[in-house]
Specification:
The protein is mostly helical and 157 residues long. The protein has one domain: Endonuclease III, domain 1. It contains ten helices and no strands.
């Protein structure tokens, strides 16, 4: 099968693909904090688990301030069966605390500033970048993917 046929088939099939849980959170809420927390929950976890876990957690708390009012056990119960749910519950609290102490409870707009103590890893940078862009557009993750897709398509034309 030629690359042209593969690309044509992908173009036909792509509109039917289900967006990721993280993209759905970004589109629904337009809230960088929710996107950041959903991103943390999504690491090493299937989308089928991430979406409902995020919804359960955000039903309890949806700001850094309200998140800090929760006990780690409450967060663990809300996000279970997310992978590493105990560790992620502590990370959610740490990120919330860090956002309050360093940024007044807001997710900063720049990548460097957004790298809180719990989000310093380089592999996590694209997710932090998506959170920063969520400030401008809820569909930032889709827009970036579309941009990469179009660039690849143009390159192969």
């Amino acid at each position: 099968m030629s690359i042209g046929r593969v690309i044509a088939r992908l173009q036909r099939e792509a509109p039917r693909w289900r967006p990721t849980a993280l993209a759905e959170v970004a589109e629904r809420s337009r809230d960088p904090f929710r996107v950041l927390i959903a991103c943390l929950l999504s690491l090493r976890t299937k989308d089928e688990t991430t979406g409902p876990a995020s919804e359960r957690l955000f039903a309890l708390a949806d700001t850094p301030q309200t998140m800090l009012c929760l006990h780690p056990n409450q967060i663990e119960r809300a996000i279970f069966p997310v992978g590493f749910y105990r560790t992620k519950a502590r990370v959610v609290l740490g990120v919330s605390r860090d956002l309050i102490e360093r940024f007044g409870g807001e997710v900063p707009g720049s990548i460097d500033a957004a790298r809180t103590s719990a989000c310093r890893s380089r592999p996590g940078a694209p997710n932090v970048r998506s959170v920063a862009r969520a400030r401008a557009s809820a569909s930032s993750a889709r827009a970036e993917n579309d941009l990469h897709y179009r660039a690849a398509r143009a390159k192969n034309s």
